[in-house]
Amino acid sequence: AQTVTQSQPEMSVQEAETVTLSCTYDTSESDYYLFWYKQPPSRQMILVIRQEAYKQQNATENRFSVNFQKAAKSFSLKISDSQLGDAAMYFCAYTPGRTGGGADGLTFGKGTHLIIQP
Amino acid sequence: DGGITQSPKYLFRKEGQNVTLSCEQNLNHDAMYWYRQDPGQGLRLIYYSQIVNDFQKGDIAEGYSVSREKKESFPLTVTSAQKNPTAFYLCASSISGLGSNQPQHFGDGTRLSIL
Questions:
Q1: Which of B68, B91, B104, B110 would you mutate first to test chain A, the one with the most A CBs within 10 A?
Q2: In the predicted model, is pLDDT for residue A30 greater than 70?
């Protein structure tokens, strides 16, 4: 079974600084998809960024970027120029790619609580 | 606007009672999912359905049941066999996974508590 591990229960960063959230996963699949979701206090799950395992290039979305290390099974999220609105729980998630992105359901890590200090 | 609607937002269950959580989507997505979230935990997959009239158990299906009679609807029943049902339940949907790499979209959730 696949597992996703987020080793940082909580992280704190000063506003405007950069922070990196860690995620490692375990799978025997060669084709899969990885996601970072944000869950603010409203409890809504918001997609931040996604990465296809077959792509060498790291995904980026504005201030959010990932460092995808396939051999190490590592998928960290870097948030640049942190803003107060970035404060939330962040979840790393995995799904096998044999049927595409997510049809089999996602496996989530336990999350990292990100605090932004003004 | 297209989206996923979960109802009710809050639900209370008495001992020995079955309750049903509603999930409706107007995104024309084929696949739908139910997740459970406990405090300080990530989401865990309960059931999922890739197409109408078909569904599969996820990691924690015991004590739950689902149906998928319509493409836009995927209700979850929490039965009396589920001994610890207090949690936050999230419904999601996505374009069919066959050849697709589209992410899942989530509803706003239902909080279920025991009376």
A1: B104
A2: yes
